[in-house]
Each structure stands twice: as C-alpha cells, then as structure tokens.
C-alpha cells in the first residue's frame, strides 16, 4: 500500500506502507503506480516526494512473494514511469533503501538520505541480481568499479559513503521527509533531462577488459560455485558496453536464469532461516516469546586461552564490562597484550575507539563475585571445568548465570556441580570467537528458560547467529561432523587421497576440504577426544583388530599421524606438508601417500578408484543422516537450526542452503536410497544406516522442509 497526501501546498507526498520494512509487495507496487499517477495528474502538485513509513524507506522486493506466482505491476515499468515523469520526484531515504528499494530511489530524480540510513543492492546474497535497472543505472551514476563492488558484494553503505560515491545528493541529520519536501519545492519546474540516470552514458574505463577479467576472476574465486555474483558482473559489463535498452534486456535475461535457480531458493531460505532460529523453543515447551531474558551489564571470562581471549573481545565490543580471569601470570600478561591488539585492530577497522577500558584483568577468580554472567573458557577437560564450576558456585552472588564454553562436554554434568543448575547453559563459541558468527546455546534438562533467553539475547547483542540446542555429545555441529570425518578416513583406506577428498568438497563449495580443515584446527584435537572415548590406543582393549573399535569399523589413520607428531599446520606436517610450522599453504606430501599405501598393504586393503560423487554422497549423506537423528532426538527444534549451524559455523556453502535443505533439494528418497546402498556395502558403519525419521519422511511423501516439524511432532508423540 502507499498513502498519498499533498503537503506544503504543492508537493505530492507518497508514503510506502508495508510493515515492518515497507517491502515492495504487489499491493505496494500497485499503490505506487496509482499515487504517482495521481500526483502527476494533479495540477496543484509541482513536485513529488516518496518516503516510507516508520522511519524506513524500503527493504526491497517482498522476498516472500518470490516462491509464488508474482502478480501486480512489475517494478521495471513502474520505475521507468517515475524517471520519465515531468515533475521532479525526490526519494526521502530513512532507515534502509535496499534492493528494489534503492532501485526505486535510483529512478527518482533526486535522493536525500538521513545520516543514519544504509543503502545497498543485496540481491546477490539472495541468489539474484538487481533486475529493476540497478545493474544499468548504478554504473551510469557512480562508475563501473564502484558499482561492481556494491552489486557483486551486496554490501550496505552508510549515507556518508553513499554521498561520497554520488548515490545520494544530500544527507541530513534532521527530518528527511521535511528536507526532501523543502528540496522538492526548490527544484519544482526545473529541467529534468539531466536527472534521468538511464540517459547517462556509462563511464567507460580505459582498461575495460582487464577490469572485468580481474573482477570476474576475484568473484569466481570467492563465490565458490555461486552463480549470482558471476551474473552480476555480466550484467554490469552490459551496462559498460551496450546502450541502456540492450543492457536492460541483458539484465532481464540473466535474472530469468537466476530467479528460478536452486541457488536462489537456497539463499532465500537462508535469509528466513537465519531469522527463524532466534524464535527458539525447548522440548519442555519453553519458547522465545514466553521467556524473558535478564539484562547483562557485567560479565566475566575465566581462562584466557585462544577462546577466552576472543570471547573477551566480543563482550567488550558489545559494550559490556568484562572481568577477564587467568590464574597464570605469564598467560595473563600475554592475553592482555593479545586482547588489546585485537580490540585496537577491530576499532581501527570500524573507525571507533577501542574498548580497552571496559576490561579489567585478574589472576584471582574471586574478582567475579558481582558479575551478572560468567563464561568459563578453560581448557577442554571435564575435571578442570568441574573444579571451576564448583568454585564459581561458591563465589558468585545468587542468580549469576554460569555458562561454559565447551565444544562437546556434558553441560548437565557441569550444572550438577552448582547449587543452581537452572542457571547453567553452554555457550559454544567458534574460533576465532570475536569473528565467527555462530553461537550454539546449549540447554540441559535443568536449564531455565530465562537462562536460555539470556544467553540467546547476549549472543544476538554480540552480533552472533545464536542457535539453541539440546545437550548431547558434540551438540549439533560437532556431532554431525563425526560421521562426516569418519567417512573421509574410510575413503582414504579404500583408495582415496586427502587431495581427492578435499577437491570434491571444495568444488561442492566448502572453503576447505575436511583434511585441510583438520590440518588447520589441529589433528591432536580429535585425537584427544578419541582417547577420551576409549577409541584410540592405548584406551582400546588389547587383542582387538586395529580397524574395529567398540564393535564397529574404525580407522586409526588420524591416530597414527598424531603418533608421528603430525598435528597439522602447527607442526608443519599433517595430511599435507607445509614449508614450516605455522605456514598455511598446504602442499601434497609424498610421504603421506606412501604411508597410505603401506597402511593399506598391512591391512590387506586394495585401493580402488573413488570418484567425486562417492566422496560427496558418503561424507555428506552420513552427516545429513546424523542431522535427521538430531531432529528425531529433539536436540534441534527444526531443520533451520541445523542448517544455520552449518552455514555459519562449518563453512557449508550458503548457496546450497545447509545440509537439511540440501537433502530436500537432492530428494529425501534419493538420500535414503544411497544411504541404504552404502550401508549394505559397509554394514559395520552404523552412521550409514538411514535413521527412522528419514524413513518416515520418505514414507509420508517427502514433504517440503517447512512441513518436517509436523512429522517430527507425530514421531515424538508416538515415542
Ligand atoms: C523481482 C525481483 C526483485 C528483486 C529485488 C529485491 O529487492 S530483492 C530484496 C532485496 N532486499 C534485501 O535483501 C533486504 C532484506 N532485508 C534486510 O536486509 C533487513 O531485513 C533490513 C531491511 C535491513 C531490516 O533489518 P532488521 O534487522 O531491522 O530486521 P529483520 O531483518 O529482522 O527483518 C524484519 C522482518 O522483515 C522481514 N523482511 C525483511 N526484508 C524483507 C523483504 N525484502 N521481503 C520480505 N520480508 C522481509 C524479515 O524476514 C523479518 O520478518 P520476521 O517475520 O520478523 O522474521
């Protein structure tokens, strides 16, 4: 909808009305067409202002409409009609002007923005391109390199940057609508020919071919198989090389391919899933909308290793007072220096003052007595964590939330060390904690809804995508990683190389394959866990075959590498070799290849040819199968939670939507059939046995992902 009024005698004021972001739904587009026509035909109106209600200009096309048959007036002719108007039209931009919202503003003759407004063409993040003339008008207005940057990254710019680039004509700190109305009065009757961006020649850089080749190369590398960024470059190239009308044709043609693509569906799913995970629920019925978080002003971090330092930085940058505790003097000094450095670098990047004085450091754990919330981040050792929790229980004032940063340990067991287990939750950060967007908030059976709500809200304040999950070994992310890595090890035993497995996964879109990732995070991390689980020697009972543990197939390859001191990048050797310890450039290692050959020979294994499809099916379907088990167990409330954990924490390519979405795209029947096939071939691998929820979903006709919760509910009610 759009409201029309006449203000200051001669200005037609059109207000977009579609809360919460004034998205350009069919009704809004119809409203704009009608009100523009009305303003242009009213002889008393000399100029027009377009604004949005509730302090936001427009969040772009209505993404919810994309899946359905789009009705109502299309954007392109609507914007052309505005640009062609014989009365000046001014866009008054408050809040956001994004996507179709900015394209609408680019069709206006003038743009005035509030200093706090943000502008951008984020269509690429939804698997699309700005197809309402954005790829053709923006380069004509601000030049090809700047337009390429905004369109291929989708980044939002501040009003100040928009002014500097020439996207807007004026920035105000006061009422944008008042400023726009005044401005509209001042330009009434003035010639408009020079204000119609589509008529501008596109500035043609002298090194056009080199420029586009360079950008295309960069985009291909960072897009990891995403098609929209490539199409964006092609569309802008059309603006730079062809007349406007032909450029618009090219824009339309490219958009037609993107619009119906699986990647666009996946990315749009991610947009909504990212928001849906904040509406958490627990199996006991507690929910985000009925649980009130408690404010947290002062927090403490215990243990200043890599994780503790990152968490301290993230809390301080959020504006909290932080008490950072490390009992070892040397560690404390090193941590203080490292944290200050991280804060200073972050502040420099964001153009703000570093939050150094928000942190006080102490060697004495008693210093945390009066904080609202503690995050324990000591070494991943249950004995040590238990001791810390016992201390915290006696030091902290009543009501203090006690959180543990653990990647796999039993949160409930830690809660039992305190007098108030309802105040205990897990906060599983990902390294580096001040950079990575994911936070798993882990509730135990005794965690109170308020504790969960408080941790979720704190995560949000820290700029994290927080996902509430139940307590089980590995929670969601690491639990699903286990079958994925296990399959990768088995593939090596059967004839693959780390290079082959990694290449298949990287071509799928992961930034790093499983072995390069393992080298980066350190092979000793998994080794320690396997030792703790009694899997790796010497915990395993003597006399059992080397490749069987606890009655199932086991690959000791990772353990054998660790026994050789090959911990990955930090030792300069792992699944690959590196120039020196700490170096990041992985090189193929002939030693590893002959080690694998020797290993196979020792165990009577005959190497066979393994192709990309098998790598993907075995690694990914085993991981997905565990995802279904997690849903079945009620550890994650819905598939969106799992998908966002994988997209934000584990490098799952966003344009593939997350593992559960991907399973739906592949077809649940196909995933089931391939798992059955592999399980028949490897009956000693329980992770390959399709779980009952997958069977049930297939039996109920493979419903779309948004209907899975109904099937899960039914399954739970029958248990
Ligand atoms: C014909 C094809 C043409 C395509 C051109 C396009 O315009 S594509 C769309 C391009 N626009 C965007 O990508 C903007 C998406 N929105 C945002 O980035 C942000 O929502 C915002 C506008 C910056 C506001 O952020 P804020 O944090 O304040 O709010 P939320 O993100 O939580 O959003 C509030 C609710 O509004 C829903 N929503 C937001 N944008 C749209 C949209 N364009 N279409 C439909 N719905 C949108 C969002 O889902 C939230 O809804 P909830 O139900 O509360 O989750």
Automatic annotation (TrEMBL):
Give the main location. Answer: other
Pathway(s) this gene product operates in, as recorded in its UniProt entry: Lipid metabolism; fatty acid beta-oxidation
* UniProt keyword terms in alphabetical order: Fatty acid metabolism, Isomerase, Lipid metabolism, Lyase, Multifunctional enzyme, NAD, Oxidoreductase, Peroxisome
**Which biological process annotations from GO are given for this protein?**
fatty acid beta-oxidation
Keyword hit for Nucleus? no
Q: Which domain of life is it from?
A: Eukaryota
Q: Where is the 3-hydroxyacyl-CoA dehydrogenase C-terminal domain?
A: 474-578, 615-702
Which Enzyme Commission number(s) are listed?
Answer: 1.1.1.35, 4.2.1.17, 5.3.3.8
The chain positions of domain 3-hydroxyacyl-CoA dehydrogenase NAD binding read 298-471
Q: Which reaction does it catalyse?
A: a (3S)-3-hydroxyacyl-CoA + NAD(+) = a 3-oxoacyl-CoA + NADH + H(+); (3E,5Z)-tetradecadienoyl-CoA = (2E,5Z)-tetradecadienoyl-CoA; (3S)-hydroxyhexanoyl-CoA = (2E)-hexenoyl-CoA + H2O; (3E)-decenoyl-CoA = (2E)-decenoyl-CoA
Q: Which Pfam families match?
A: 3HCDH, 3HCDH_N, ECH_1
CDD domains noted in UniProt: crotonase-like
Cellular component (GO) terms are: peroxisome
Which SUPFAM superfamilies does the entry mention?
6-phosphogluconate dehydrogenase C-terminal domain-like, ClpP/crotonase, NAD(P)-binding Rossmann-fold domains
Classification via InterPro entries: 3-OHacyl-CoA_DH_CS, 3-OHacyl-CoA_DH_NAD-bd, 3HC_DH_C, 6-PGluconate_DH-like_C_sf, ClpP/crotonase-like_dom_sf, Enoyl-CoA_hyd/isom_CS, Enoyl-CoA_hydra/iso, NAD(P)-bd_dom_sf
Q: Which GO terms describe its molecular function?
A: (3S)-3-hydroxyacyl-CoA dehydrogenase (NAD+) activity; delta(3)-delta(2)-enoyl-CoA isomerase activity; enoyl-CoA hydratase activity; NAD+ binding
Has UniProt tagged this entry with the keyword Transmembrane? no
Cell location: Peroxisome
Q: Which residues form the signal peptide?
A: none
Q: How does it assemble?
A: Monomer.
Q: Which family does the similarity line name?
A: Belongs to the enoyl-CoA hydratase/isomerase family. In the C-terminal section; belongs to the 3-hydroxyacyl-CoA dehydrogenase family.
Q: What is this protein called?
A: Peroxisomal bifunctional enzyme
Q: Tell me the lineage of the source organism.
A: Eukaryota, Metazoa, Chordata, Craniata, Vertebrata
């Amino acid at each position: 909808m759009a409201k029309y009024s006449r203000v200051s005698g001669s200005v037609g004021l059109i207000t977009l009305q579609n809360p919460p972001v004034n998205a350009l739904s069919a009704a809004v587009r119809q409203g704009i067409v009608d009100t523009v026509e009305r303003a242009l035909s009213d002889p008393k109106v000399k100029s027009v202002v377009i604004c949005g209600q509730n302090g936001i200009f427009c969040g772009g096309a209505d993404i919810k409409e994309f899946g359905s048959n789009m009705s109502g007036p299309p954007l392109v002719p609507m914007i052309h009609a505005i640009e062609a108007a014989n009365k000046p039209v001014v866009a008054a931009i408050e809040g956001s002007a994004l996507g179709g919202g900015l394209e609408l503003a680019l069709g206006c003759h003038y743009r005035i923005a509030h200093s706090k407004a943000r502008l951008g063409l984020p269509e690429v993040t939804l698997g699309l391109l700005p197809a309402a003339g954005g790829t053709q008008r923006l380069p004509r207005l601000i030049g090809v390199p700047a337009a390429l940057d905004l369109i291929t990254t989708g980044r939002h710019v501040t009003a100040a940057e928009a002014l500097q680039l020439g996207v807007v004509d004026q920035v105000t700190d006061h009422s944008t609508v008042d400023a726009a109305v005044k401005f509209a009065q001042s330009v009434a009757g003035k010639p408009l020919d020079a204000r119609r961006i589509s008529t501008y020649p596109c500035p043609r850089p002298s090194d056009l071919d080199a420029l586009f080749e360079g950008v295309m190369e960069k985009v291909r590398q960072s897009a990891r198989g995403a098609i929209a960024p490539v199409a964006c470059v092609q569309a802008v190239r059309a603006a730079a090389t062809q007349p406007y009308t032909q450029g618009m044709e090219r824009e339309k043609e490219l958009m037609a391919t993107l619009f119906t693509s699986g990647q666009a569906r996946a990315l749009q799913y991610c947009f909504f899933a990212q928001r849906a995970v904040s509406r958490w629920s627990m199996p006991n019925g507690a929910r985000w909308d009925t649980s009130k978080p408690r404010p947290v002003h002062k927090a403490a971090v215990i243990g200043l290793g890599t994780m503790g330092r990152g968490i301290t930085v993230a809390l301080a940058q959020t504006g909290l007072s932080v008490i950072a505790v490390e009992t070892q003097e040397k560690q404390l000094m090193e941590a203080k220096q490292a944290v200050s450095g991280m804060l200073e670098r972050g502040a420099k990047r964001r153009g703000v003052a570093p939050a150094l004085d928000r942190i006080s450091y102490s060697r004495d754990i008693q210093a945390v007595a009066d904080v609202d919330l503690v995050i324990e981040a000591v070494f991943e050792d249950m004995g040590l964590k238990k001791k810390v929790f016992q201390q915290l229980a006696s030091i902290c004032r009543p009501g203090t939330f006690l959180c543990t940063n653990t990647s796999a340990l039993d949160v409930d067991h830690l809660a039992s060390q305190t007098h108030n287990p309802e105040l205990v939750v897990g906060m599983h950060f990902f390294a580096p904690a001040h950079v990575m967007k994911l936070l798993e908030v882990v509730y135990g059976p005794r965690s109170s809804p308020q504790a969960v709500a408080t941790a979720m809200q704190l995560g949000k304040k820290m700029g994290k995508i927080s996902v509430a999950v139940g307590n089980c070994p590995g929670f969601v992310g690491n639990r699903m990683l286990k079958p994925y890595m296990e399959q990768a090890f088995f593939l090596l035993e059967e004839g693959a190389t780390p290079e082959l497995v990694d290449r298949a996964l990287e071509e799928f879109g992961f930034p790093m394959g499983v072995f390069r990732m393992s080298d980066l995070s350190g092979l000793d991390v998994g080794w320690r866990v396997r030792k703790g689980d009694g899997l790796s020697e010497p915990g395993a009972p003597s006399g059992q075959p080397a490749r069987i543990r606890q009655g199932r197939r086991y690959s000791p390859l990772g353990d054998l590498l660790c026994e050789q001191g090959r911990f990955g990048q930090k030792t300069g050797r792992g699944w690959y070799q590196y120039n020196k310890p700490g170096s990041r450039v992985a090189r193929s290692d002939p030693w590893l290849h002959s080690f694998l050959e020797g290993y196979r020979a020792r165990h009577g294994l005959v190497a066979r040819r393994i192709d990309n499809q098998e790598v993907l099916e075995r690694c990914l379907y085993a991981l997905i199968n565990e995802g279904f088990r997690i849903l079945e167990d009620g550890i994650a409330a819905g598939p969106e939670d799992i998908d966002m954990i994988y997209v934000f924490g584990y490098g799952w390519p966003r344009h593939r939507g997350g593992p559960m979405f991907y399973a739906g795209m592949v077809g649940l029947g196909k995933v089931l059939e391939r798992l059955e096939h592999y399980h028949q071939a490897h009956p000693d691998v329980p992770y390959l046995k399709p779980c009952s929820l997958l069977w049930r979903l297939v039996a109920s006709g493979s419903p779309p992902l948004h209907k899975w919760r109904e099937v899960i509910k039914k399954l739970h009610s029958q248990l």
